[in-house]
């Protein structure tokens, strides 16, 4: 095996609307506008590149303990993710009581019952380059506004075997 193959074996690969990782092959949804190298805020595309993974967020009121080695965080009612490029908290978790222009994390639907932050546009955060790119849940594989979405059962199989060093290649 060449070094790239070895490194990719540790990466989650997104290819042809499938998520591939160590023998797993899960159907997935991507952004409505496809995958783009030069993503912009609101363009409904999924960013192309290789990214590290952040925390796994979950709804304690809807899910039991999650088996994973990732850092986890419980979603609270006031949590959001800032999608206002003019705010200093752009592309960061925020308190929706203080910053209204943000993606609501405590949702009525199931999509964010559990999700993993994809560390896109995080270090440094660049204004208008895109925010709130997550690996989250879906029931129907409808296109997302930029995230990657998989079925709940597939998500929980995946989080058991990935770790803090796992990257995602889109």
Structural commentary:
The chain has 170 residues and is mainly beta. Strands 1, 2, 3, 6, 7, 11, 12, 13 and 14 form a nine-stranded mixed sheet that branches. A three-stranded antiparallel sheet has the order 9-8-10, with no helix packed on it. The protein has one domain (3-169): L,D-transpeptidase catalytic domain-like (Beta Barrel). The relative contact order is 0.26. The chain is 10% helix and 32% strand. The chain has helices at residues 3-9, 152-161, and strands at residues 11-15, 18-21, 24-27, 35-36, 46-47, 50-58, 72-74, 79-82, 93-95, 102-104, 114-118, 134-137, 148-150, 167-169.
Which helices and strands appear, and what pairs or packs with what?
Blueprint: H1 3-9, E1 11-15, E2 18-21, E3 24-27, E4 35-36, E5 46-47, E6 50-58, E7 72-74, E8 79-82, E9 93-95, E10 102-104, E11 114-118, E12 134-137, E13 148-150, H2 152-161, E14 167-169
Parallel strand pairs: 1-14, 4-5, 6-7, 12-13
Antiparallel strand pairs: 1-2, 2-3, 6-11, 6-14, 8-9, 8-10, 11-12
Short description:
The protein is mainly beta and 170 residues long.
């Amino acid at each position: 095996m060449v070094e790239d193959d070895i490194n990719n074996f540790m990466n989650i690969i997104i290819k042809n609307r499938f998520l591939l990782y160590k023998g797993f092959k899960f159907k997935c949804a991507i952004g409505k506008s496809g995958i783009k190298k030069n993503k912009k805020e609101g363009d409904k595309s999924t960013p192309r590149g290789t990214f590290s993974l952040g925390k796994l967020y979950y709804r304690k009121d809807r899910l039991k303990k999650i088996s994973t080695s990732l850092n986890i965080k419980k979603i609270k009612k006031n949590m959001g993710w800032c999608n206002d490029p003019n705010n200093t908290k752009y592309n960061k978790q925020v308190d929706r009581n203080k910053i209204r222009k943000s993606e609501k994390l405590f949702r009525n639907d199931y999509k964010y019952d559990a999700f993993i932050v994809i560390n896109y546009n995080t270090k440094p955060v660049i204004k208008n380059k895109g925010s709130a790119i997550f690996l989250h849940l879906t029931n129907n594989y409808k296109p997302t506004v930029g995230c990657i979405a998989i079925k709940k059962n597939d998500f929980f199989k995946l989080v058991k075997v990935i770790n803090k060093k796992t990257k995602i290649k889109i």
